[in-house]
């Protein structure tokens, strides 16, 4: 199924089931919620997250819980992340920029470990570790702005097109039949109904000169709190398991305007539409992993994570303002809430590392995720709608994708220097995503560290680049193509600072 057909069929679907959902981009949010970034501590981030087999670092526990079995002493640590986002958007041949600065606590942890030195000569069990940690695995903090002059269509054209379809034209324009923005467009006079001709028309002058702007601000993230246990067997094999309780919070503020700056549309001056949306909830998952040392200087490992199950609650509200030559009418939807379940797919991680004796290491990690297995459950009452999202939209848009991470650490006495690179492949099937805006991601990193007997400090710089596409509405006149969207290149610069302290 092509990109345009998926989008168009979704528009038909949301009008048919508008009263069920607060918003209608759950398939897009499934990807946004499940594209993980493994920064963890500054040490993990300094090698681009390629740390699943290296050794005892809390940032690696999210990748492979067997790491807990490699600890020989107890310790506590914490990380702050200073992030600056720079989003450059291209819309209707005009380029816009937006910056956003955010400080977050990236991780907190405590690890309790016991080394059984007396059993080295003959015992199987050489050590046990237990950890409680939190790690930020997804970050939603970003701001995007786009603007441009549209000579061919308006968002109101989309409303009019669907409201005039035979299956919808006789429906009452209320929240049980149409999405909130359709109802608000009618209530504010942007869409008018002719009793004489029995059809809806636009007051925004589609096909004339509209100056369009959009602002999207997102915040929040997914923080994974996990309890992990690991064991050291023969100083060769490390095994571990964890139980995770991720907490998801996502906020989105969206403001969209159209303005007749050239005074070319009779009676129309401006429309302003805004959405305030929030979803949050708690999930759970499990993970098991092993790390094996075939030689003193080589380590290999693998871990498998179960699907993550979330219970989510969203709240929402919408407003629309219509300014004419002689009046201003502002309308607001009732605030609402909706609860549902969401399941992320299982994950497989594998890694290998080679050590340069005491002078550092080189490591490579690989992750595989089938994003087509993202699933929603909107409840038994909406079983058909759940199946539509899961079996039609998500399955036809997304595929198995991969993430490759690599890094090197050079060590001399108490000093450390690190470099890393990671690449996230696109989660989209071929032909679905807009070219050069397919959510693939490049990550480069560097870091420095000091490791003393009881105290350690690490700092890392991480730069990520990704490209995405956002269409504020479908250009129904040009179906099956819809080219009036914003292509955004987002660059994020992160500086992470980690402090660690050993208890003994």
CATH level 4 superfamily: Outer membrane protein transport protein (OMPP1/FadL/TodX)
| Biggest sheet strand line-up | 1-2-3-7-8-9-10-14-15-17-18-19-20-21
Largest sheet: 14 strands, antiparallel, barrel
Whole-number count of domains: 1
CATH topology: Porin
Please give the CATH class.
Answer: Mainly Beta
Structure description:
This protein has 504 residues and is mainly beta. Helices cover 12% and strands 55% of the residues. It has one domain: Beta Barrel (Porin). It has helices at 3-16, 26-34, 42-46, 155-163, 180-187, 383-397; strands at 75-91, 94-115, 125-139, 142-150, 191-194, 199-202, 210-233, 237-259, 268-295, 298-305, 308-324, 328-332, 336-344, 347-355, 360-370, 375-377, 400-412, 415-424, 441-451, 455-470, 486-502. Strand 11 (308-324) and strand 12 (328-332) form a beta hairpin. The longest helix is centred in the C-terminal third of the chain and has 15 residues, at 383-397.
